[in-house]
Amino acid sequence: MTGTSGRTGSLEWTSQKPGGVPSNRLVESVLAAFAAIRANKVRSLLTSLGIMIGVMNVVAMVSLISGVNESVMDVFRQMGTNTFVVSKMPAANVDYMQYLEYLRRPDFTFRDAEAVEELCPSVLAVSPQSVVARRVRRGSESTAEIRIVGVSPEYQYVSDSAVERGRFFAWPEADRRRQVVVLGAPVEERLFPGDDPVGENVLIGGHRFRVVGVMEPQGEMFGQSLDNYVMVPFRTLNKLFGSRLSSSLSVKTVSGERIEPAMEEVERVMRGRRGLRAGDPNNFEIISQSQLVEMYENLTRVTWIVMIGISAIALVVGGVGIMNIMLVSVTERTKEIGIRKAVGARSRDVAAQFLVEAGVLSGIGGLLGLLAALGIGAAIEKATPLPATPQPWSILLALGVSIGVGVFFGFFPATKAAKLDPIVALRYE
After folding, report:
1. pTM
2. CA 225, CA 229: separation in Å to the nearest integer?
3. SS3 of residue 195 by DSSP
4. β-pair type (224-225, 229-233)
5. pLDDT tens-digit series, residues 5-62
6. What is the number of other CB atoms lying within 10 angstroms of the CB of residue 425?
7. pLDDT recorded at residue 221
């Protein structure tokens, strides 16, 4: 039968319950562990602080990174699996000198888009694209500087985007450089609150444009709207804002399976149009969705490594703290250990008791860290545009690792307690 020591708060063991029924040693060990922790609340809390910080860091960072990853992947999914971009700049980061070198590459023209669509059988649609930043005005209302995107009518098919009201501009309007515009949802809300903008006029960089449609909203990423833009015909943009605007080609293939052949076809056509000989490097980049995903994963991989390093340090510090406190506990309870051995407790029973105590102590630290991480995640979602999605696997892993760390670092004190000679222990003062 178990009993509680008034001075230490620990439980004394026997190998049998009344009536000769074997005791449930695991339950008794856990209860004894909680009793010992209650007897030294402040010391136990400080000991588990390192474990708490490690678990909090793991769960909070995994929640934040997972939420951000989901938002980014949503954007990639909206782009479609059968699209890619032909650009002057590579997807990877470049230094300033490389940036200046890439900037001197030839721009893409409307004729390039027509040649790609005509000569590449794996390509379904192509749109050239240029971007400038300008204010859009209507009367006394004005936006901040936003993206003015020049595209062809094919863009709505390339990007799988839809017009919510009105229509997209037509080929005759694009060919004749008409000053027509399709608004993004936030621009409509800013300039036409409660009014229908279709058929009305706006000023873009001092030039009058007629609104023909409003695009369907795509939502936000990191709290930033993906719809804060307006679209005008590609040739109109070049006519009004300069023909030397940096441009690119957005390409959609006939299917996801044809994306690799399509990229090879586009490469051949562009090399031919730019007069590149065999052996000459490309003076353009073909960027697929898989490359963008890989680049993003490389960026987040660094965050994962830093997170793991910080967590490992915190867990090791917490584990060393648990080992130290368990060694102190063995010293404080030397006589108690001698009494237990004298009444029949085996060495492995004593070792198991201290291992369970170490596991419970670190488990409490892990649980506190988990609660803190969930609170941090909720605060981040409420106070910032960053999403934080708790992952069940990270919660289970963090708790499992925290308990494992406690058991690992509790092994030496448990072994020391198990090896105590009961005669020597009974004489200890």
Report:
1. 0.61
2. 9
3. coil
4. unpaired
5. 334 444 444 444 444 434 466 677 677 777 777 777 777 777 778 788 888 887 887 8
6. 19
7. 63
Least confident range from 43-52, 218-227, 351-360, 368-377: namely: 218-227
β-pairing, 163-166 vs 224-225, is unpaired
Average pLDDT, the chain: 81
Contact 391, 66 (CB under 8 A): yes
Question: Distance (Å, rounded) from C-alpha 392 to C-alpha 397?
Answer: 8
Tokens of 107: 């721009």
Query: Is residue 202 a contact partner of residue 143, using CB atoms and an 8 Å limit?
Result: no
- Alpha carbons 324 and 321: distance in angstroms, whole number: 5
Other beta carbons within 10 Å of 41: 10
pLDDT at 196: 92
Q: How confident is the model at residue 73 (pLDDT cuts 50, 70, 90)?
A: low
Domain ranges of the chain: 3-72+296-427, 106-283
DSSP 13-74: --SB-GGGPBP-HHHHHHHHHHHHHHHTHHHHHHHTHHHHHHHHHHHHHHHHHHHHHHHHHH
Tell me the two tokens of residue 395. 């919660």
What values do phi and psi take at 31, rounded to 5? -60, -40
3-state secondary structure of 329: helix
The DSSP code sequence of 343-369 is: TT--HHHHHHHHHHHHHHHHHHHHHHH
Q: What is the pLDDT of residue 282?
A: 93
CB 345 within 8 A of CB 401: no
Query: Residue 84: what are its φ and ψ, rounded to 5°?
Result: -155, 170
Q: How many DSSP H helices and E strands does the chain contain?
A: 15, 16
Does position 98 have pLDDT exceeding 50, yes or no?
yes
Would strands 229-233 and 146-151 be described as parallel, antiparallel, or unpaired?
A: parallel
Q: Using an 8 Å Cβ cutoff, are 402 and 362 in contact?
A: yes
Confidence of residue 101 (pLDDT cuts 50, 70, 90): confident
- For residue 236, give both structure tokens: 């109109």
